[in-house]
Specification:
Jelly Rolls; four-stranded antiparallel sheet; 20% strand; vitamin c; eight-stranded antiparallel sheet; alpha+beta; phytanoyl-CoA dioxygenase activity; single chain; metal-binding; Phytanoyl-CoA dioxygenase, peroxisomal
Amino acid sequence: MNQCQAAARLRVVLGHLGQPSAGAGVAYPTSGAVSPNSFHPPQFQYTRDNDVLSLEQRKFYEENGFLVIKNLVSDADIQRFRDQFERICRGEVKPEQMMTMRDVSIAKSEYIPSERMISKIQYFEDDKELFRYCTLPEILKYVECFTGPSIMAMHTMLINKPPDSGKKTSRHPLHQDLHYFPFRPSNKIVCAWTAMEHIDRNNGCLCVLPGTHKGSLKPHDYPNWEGGVNLMFYGIQDYDENSPRVHLVMEKGDTVFFHPLLIHGSGWNKTQGYRKAISCHFASADCHYIDVKGTSQEIAERELVELVHRLYGFPKDTSLKEVSRYRARLVRGRRISL
């Protein structure tokens, strides 16, 4: 897809956004969550009624905001995703509109097409092989427990956390994913994050603060790290540093599902290998878009719009919700609002 085609598609998206829809363009609270002390099972707020999750699993997610399902994605599928990623690194495959990122510690002069140069791929919805992840029946079976039956794939990533250079730039500050998303309600959004190999504290596993999904969206900004910070690696500026933390040690194929308000991050990679994971944020198709201008999310909108303007020729006055709608893909059920 060239820039002219991208512009044409964006005009179609803008046309859709211009049509009246329930709740469109109206700011709503980031979460209808109750305080931790007011949760009484079985009044479930974050999970949907079906026969997939056990009562114990539902209670765990309701209380903690995340749930790990062991050995969910097959070795064969993970190998296919790994092979495709390596083809992309070598320049053999160039999906349109896909965003590749490299660690801030790597100088432009060092660029050689290889795994070393790409620390993250975003927006792989136009790569049929990688996007298979978002349509795997075993993934969607669990996603439906959080979003309901009509499901949109909203944001895709393959993370290739590099061996740290010594500056600790491979770590990701504690943050909430909702900071990046212009759609609500938060309780109908979930991330599926699958380990592509053994992941522990040595190579930078996820660290979560259980129960923080019950709070509100907090202000984010770049942390003041001496070694530098990667683009759009925002961190929460105000959180309780004494909050309990859980480090998620995962095996290949294990998948964690978590709420977009859950505070989480990841440590630096102390090994000589590259730590890989593949993920997608899903939302119910009956979610609605909001305008983030004048909110703490405006910093994310400004940087992302500048990026897609420079890379893909999007208009400079594009909004975060327009970019989001352009990227969204229906993966199950019917498209309603998003």
